[in-house]
Amino acid sequence: MVKGGLLKDDADWSTMGLKNGQKLMMMGTADEIVKAPEKGPVFMEDLPEEEQAASLGYSAGLVNLGNTCYMNSTMQCLKSVPELKSELVNYQPARNKDVDQTSHMLTVATRELFSELDKSVKAVAPMPFC
Question: Which Pfam families does the UniProt entry name for this protein (predicted)?
Answer without folding.
Answer: UCH
